[in-house]
Structure of Citrate lyase subunit beta/citryl-CoA lyase:
Amino acid sequence: MNRTPHHHPLRLRRSVLSVPAANGRALAKSRTLDCDAIIFDLEDSVLPEKKAEARAALVSHFTALDRTSGREHVIRINPLEGPDGALDLETVLACMPDAVLLPKVSEPQEVLTVADWLSEAGADDGPRLWAMIETAASLLNLAAIAEIGRTHGGRLDCFVVGLNDLRKETGIADMAGRPFLVPLLLQVVVAARASGLDVVDAVFNDFSDEDAFEAECRQARQMGFDGKMLIHPVQIEAANAAFGVTEAEAAEALAIVAAFAAPDNAGKAVVNIAGRMVEKLHADQAGRLLAKVDLINERKTKT
Ligand SMILES: CC(C)(COP(=O)(O)OP(=O)(O)OC[C@H]1O[C@@H](n2cnc3c(N)ncnc32)[C@H](O)[C@@H]1OP(=O)(O)O)[C@@H](O)C(=O)NCCC(=O)NCCSC(=O)C[C@H](O)C(=O)O
Ligand SMILES: [Mg+2]
């Protein structure tokens, strides 16, 4: 089997804000916020008796949505086996978001079912799929779930970790630094990368504790995450900074690209930059980082 991961086009997913679809004020506020993606939530932040109202609110919200903002718009649906999943999928067809976020995925078949449903509904070029990794079973089946992204039309392109559900099911403690969760989080990152998927870290519930939030963002970035799922607007700026590109990182990337473009280094696979070995793979990484800088600058012109 060819294990070379595909890479979908680079997208910014530094700050992925969840907005309860039943909360009119939060929906209105979301139009003004500088996050990279918005998840309109029909699942756990909406009471069962408010689900129908929330679906109607989303259809109305999407009719006036600015699709040129460069932001991704995602709808989190309810599990398909429950009373709301199928109705939520009809709402997805009415709204045509950029992606559908599947909650509590445990088996690859759950991703396939929605991918097939969207194709049969004629939405072949329609929403992509994101999957919440938040059950113990999803961790056991990570590679198989991620592989669906490569083998089934490439519709799956992002994992989002859900630690509230995972801690509830497993009993793993909620502790500063996440010592017992880090090994699991790294498995999610590795499985996602092996299939060319993006990967977004879990929400941080205590939105009033800025320092602890920033520390968790730094940790997530060091583990390889692309961004963080957020619950409150106050978290956006810190997430954009933590998962963004610093001036020093951009300058280093430019130096690497320039070194490989220099005539003296023509035909070299490895060069010496100020006493440090730099390989062609670092130039590829640098190019991707600079493309991210371009995307960030492009976004600034639209907000
Ligand atoms: C946590 C909250 C209930 C707090 O809400 P509130 O008390 O209204 O906060 P503030 O008064 O500080 O709000 C200030 C203004 O900001 C707006 N606001 C607040 N939150 C949001 C938001 N998420 N998106 C957009 N706008 C927001 C307020 O409306 C105020 O503005 P204004 O009305 O103009 O004055 C609330 O923040 C909240 O509900 N957050 C999201 C909850 C949610 O989406 N939960 C689901 C995702 S969590 C998850 O998925 C876990 C995962 O599955 C797992 O298992 O781990
Ligand atoms: Mg959850």
